[in-house]
Write a structure and sequence with these properties.
The structure holds three protein chains of three kinds.
Chain A (H helix, E strand, L loop, with lengths): L1 H43 L1 H5 L10 E2 L4 E2 L2 H31 L3 H15 L3 H19 L8 H25 L3 H9 L4 H30 L2 H6 L20 H8 L8 H34 L1
Antiparallel strand pairs in A: 1-2
Chain B lengths: L1 H43 L2 H5 L2 E2 L4 E2 L2 H32 L3 H16 L2 H15 L6 H26 L2 H9 L4 H29 L28 H9 L5 H37 L1
Antiparallel strand pairs in B: 1-2
Chain C lengths: L15 H8 L4 E10 L2 E11 L3 E6 L6 H8 L9 E9 L2 E2 L7 H7 E4 L10 H6 L9 H14 L3 H4 L12 H13 L5 E5 L7 H14 L4 E6 L2 H7 L2 E6 L2 E7 H6 L4 H9 L5
Parallel strand pairs in C: 3-8, 3-9, 6-7, 7-8
Antiparallel strand pairs in C: 1-2, 1-4, 4-5, 9-10
Helix pairs in contact in C: 5-7
Chain lengths: 299, 287, 275
């Protein structure tokens, strides 16, 4: 009996080990990749952090003078993100409410699949639309010489993150069971009160997750912003003037990484900005997953 | 007291109005985007446009080599990502009993998803192009794109694996199958659709990416079919980028719209296949 | 205390003379009412009059359209996809659609409790507050209303010391009584109950039954049930529905001893219906 079993099991043992080792290696590689990326960024941003007189946290950026202040870019990123948020969040949330409260599942399906199409449009194409239309419209409306300003980038970015936010927010709202709506409505509440007192408290985590994920997208978006923001490495004056040209971290990277010499302080300053960006977006995404998972735990 | 009621009604009306207005805004943005891309793109696109090489820095001629370059770079990325994604998903599903490790693995995948695409480009530039001294190379572009779509593919595969009913495993184990056999006979066949769906979605994302490959894998003009791993190619997204920067030239703009429509149709093809895959397998599952 | 939602000349009655006045208005009048889901006809040509206070049971096998009928009475069924209806319905003397300037006014005078207890994930007190919050009552009035309603629902003794604890910590039976109390905060003239005891243990069911009987002395209660024994215990008036039609209706004694229809008799004695 044992003679019958043992040769088979030895073979199986080898096969099992093979598969197991392969899986373990893949998983280790996946984790390693993240580590290597982060370490590479940290090491390469070392030179600018330890170099002297670079004015790293100042407001001037001028590679010719060896001054690399990242503040204008960080400010630009946040400013553009704020404009995009102001456009995308209210519109997205109200539309999500409309879609989830509608009685027609056909309309819902249609809208959801169109949103998927929108989310699939590459960012460079959004950039092209910005260059070909938005840019000129903004210039005409505000009577500017060029429409390549922070506002244009913000609007374009708002349009780009709208599908992401809208779909996820709608999922969160629709996940609240129908009976809560019916019970709240039976108490004679208006629709906005039903949403405010019965639906929103339960969908809050999901909506927050959707918002954070969209913020992360907005911060990391490169191509479209780069084409329409005007690339001016200065703080706008006055500070919150959306009609001046600006620069975000990503647009700066997109413009200058190709031009700077590898190993130079200039390059290192760019990598440093990229590191700032990565830290923010990873934090946002992990936070958003925390919220989204908590939503599931609740329901 | 009646005043209170009127206020409520007013809020309700405003609320409903805002919801409708938002929907209208969304729909009109949507129609504008799709309408302009299609209207302007169809003007420019033709069989000749697709199959002739670019001339005069893209202003005239077609997009033949860009099309080839894009396809090459993403298909190789798909081949590169497949074994790692499958292995990682299997590990998480079948071998990882440690909750902490699962958590770390998840966070790593989320982090990969969160890293902005331009950062991938910079990483590739530092790590491959300079440290490994490959120079501008399409293959490095493929590697970077494969890292970028790794979380998409892995998570999709893993989700499909998690959906395989536990009872299958238990029955197979009760029949005396080893873990490796269970994987081969049960887990893989039952979750393969998730892998393919994830791969297709990843492809549709990768083909539209510009930022990760523009420093490391592409050259704008004078590039044909690469003869080795370390040569640049030209791709549709980077081509559109160059043309968009000359947007004042109507001829360049026209070609940019043509290339955009081609790109979107390609991306749509991949995600459409993914959708088809999902729905077909769903209906099979019901039978 | 009058509630702002109360319809003029239909306020909650406190004195006998007022009561006489309101008696003239019929609680529910249904004429030639049909209801559909998509193209499926759920109810056809239903006629029904309820003039009295008391407990009316809609009795019948599952799929008879009892719940659909009930859900149309406060128009909650409008929220359901593909649901439509035709015919005239008058609630409290007013047309269901034209008579109420907006639907919330109707729903405040026609309360509803569903089959599955559904408390909102907040405290017991906040649950009770849900319908009142926007009606501009003073704090003391609100408190008093909530206490009254909880007492009416025979829940006050069990929860008075822990109004701030989460409502989900209550047992299912308590949750259902909380739902009833919540509906009562608005002092509805009609209370609709959709199989309120179906998902609850027998002991709690009995508690809810006696609660329903007590409430029936003051307001009109319409309750869906397929439980014949329950109907026998609590109903003043019984409407027997089968396959989307009213087979027979009448007082409890009529329905259980002198029923005219053979179908009613078989259903009541054998719990079986072949329509």
């Amino acid at each position: 009996m044992s003679a019958l079993v043992s040769p088979r099991s030895r073979q199986e043992l080898r096969a099992r080990d093979g598969v197991k080792i392969y899986c373990q290696l893949s998983a280790i590689l996946s984790i390693l990749i993240v580590g290597v990326i982060l370490l590479t960024l940290v090491f390469q941003s070392g030179p600018v952090m330890f170099a002297e007189n670079t004015g790293l946290f100042g407001t001037r950026w001028n590679p010719n003078e060896g001054v690399y202040g990242v503040i204008p870019m960080v400010f630009g990123s946040i400013f553009v993100m704020l404009i995009a948020t102001l456009i995308a969040f209210p519109t997205g949330l109200m539309t999500a409410i409309y879609i989830s409260e509608t009685r027609s599942s056909k309309l819902r399906r249609l809208f959801k699949s169109t949103l998927e199409v929108l989310a699939g449009i590459p960012s460079i194409v959004y950039g092209l639309i910005g260059v070909a239309y938005l840019n000129r419209w903004v210039a005409n409306i505000f009577d500017l010489q060029s429409g390549r300003v922070i506002l244009t980038a913000g609007i374009l970015l708002g349009i780009m993150i709208l599908p992401t936010f809208l779909t996820l927010a709608e999922d969160a709202i629709s996940a609240v069971p129908m009976r809560f709506r019916e019970n709240a409505k039976s108490l004679g509440l208006y629709r906005h009160e039903v949403f405010g007192s019965a639906i929103f408290p339960q969908a809050r985590n999901g909506i927050a997750g959707a918002g954070l994920l969209a913020l992360g997208r907005a911060l990391g978006e490169t191509m479209a912003v780069m084409l329409v923001i005007g690339s001016l490495d200065r703080l706008p004056s006055p500070l919150f003037n959306p009609l001046s040209s600006g620069q975000t971290i990503t647009s700066k990277l997109g413009r200058e990484v190709g031009e700077s010499a590898f190993g130079s302080i200039h390059f290192s300053a760019l990598v440093f900005m990229s590191l700032i960006l990565v830290v923010i977006t990873i934090t946002l995404t992990i936070l958003s997953h925390y919220f989204l998972n908590r939503k599931h735990a609740h329901v | 007291m009646f005043k209170g009621m009127n206020q409520r009604l007013l809020t309700e009306k405003i609320f409903a109005l805002m919801a409708r207005a938002s929907l209208c805004v969304c729909v009109s943005v949507l129609l504008f985007l799709l309408g302009s891309i299609f209207a302007r793109g169809i003007e420019a696109i033709s069989l000749e446009f697709l199959f002739t090489p670019a001339k005069e820095f893209g202003k005239s001629g077609g997009i033949f080599y860009q099309l080839l370059g894009s396809l090459l770079i993403v298909l190789v990325a798909a081949i590169l990502v497949s074994p790692i994604a499958l292995g990682t998903a299997l590990f998480r599903n079948a071998y990882c009993s440690n909750a902490k490790l699962t958590h770390v693995l998840d966070q790593c995948l989320y982090a990969l998803n969160a890293i902005p695409s331009v950062t991938y480009g910079i990483f590739g530039l530092i790590f491959f192009v300079n440290l490994f001294n490959t120079g501008i190379s399409w293959f490095v572009g493929s590697i970077i794109l494969s890292i970028m779509i790794l979380p998409t593919v892995t998570l999709s595969t893993y989700q499909a694996m998690a959906c395989v009913p536990k009872i299958y495993h238990e029955n197979a184990a009760a029949l005396g199958l080893t873990q490796a056999q269970i994987i081969r006979r049960i887990t893989l066949p039952q979750s393969f659709h998730g892998f393919v769906t994830g791969l297709l979605i990843g492809l549709s994302r990768a083909i539209g990416e510009t930022a990760p490959i523009m420093f490391i894998a592409t050259a704008f003009s004078g590039v044909q079919v690469p003869r080795s791993l370390v040569e640049p190619v030209s791709t549709l997204p980077t081509h559109i980028l160059e043309l968009a920067q000359q947007a004042s030239d109507p001829q360049a703009l026209r070609n940019a719209w043509g290339a955009s429509l081609t790109l979107i149709l390609l991306a749509g093809l991949f995600s459409g296949l993914a959708l088809l895959m999902r729905s077909r397998l769903k209906s099979e599952g019901h039978r | 205390m009058t509630l702002p939602n109360a319809i003029p000349n239909l306020t909650i009655v406190h004195s006998a003379s007022e009561a006489d006045q309101t008696q003239r208005v019929q609680a529910v009048q249904i004429d030639g009412f049909s209801a559909y889901y998509g193209k499926n006809c759920i109810l056809s040509d239903v006629n029904m009059n309820l003039s009295d206070k008391g407990v009316t049971c809609l009795l019948g096998p599952s799929g008879a359209g009892k719940s659909t009928l009930l859900r149309w009475l406060n128009r909650i069924n409008e929220e359901t996809e593909q649901a439509s209806c035709s015919g005239t319905v008058k609630v409290l003397g007013r047309d269901l659609w034209q008579g109420y300037s907006d639907v919330t006014q109707l729903r405040r005078s026609v309360g509803m409790v569903f089959q599955q207890p559904c408390v909102f994930p907040c405290s017991i007190y906040d649950n009770m507050l849900m319908g009142l919050r926007n009606l501009k009552f003073s704090k003391s009035e609100t408190k008093q209303l909530i206490e009254e309603s909880l007492k009416q629902a025979a829940l006050w003794d069990e929860v008075s010391h822990r109004l701030e604890s989460p409502a989900t910590s209550l047992s299912l039976g308590q949750q259902q009584r909380l739902c009833i109390a919540r509906a009562l905060t608005l002092k509805p003239n009609i209370l609709l109950l959709d199989e309120p005891t179906a998902s609850i243990d027998p002991v709690s069911s009995r508690a809810i039954e006696s609660l329903v009987v007590a409430l029936g002395k003051d307001i009109t209660i319409i309750m869906v049930t397929h439980n014949i024994a329950q109907t026998k215990r609590i109903a003043d008036h019984v409407v027997f529905l089968c396959d989307g039609k009213i087979v027979e209706q009448g007082s409890r004694s009529h329905m259980f001893s002198r029923q005219s229809s053979e179908k009613t008799r078989t259903y009541i004695t054998e719990e079986f219906c072949d329509c």
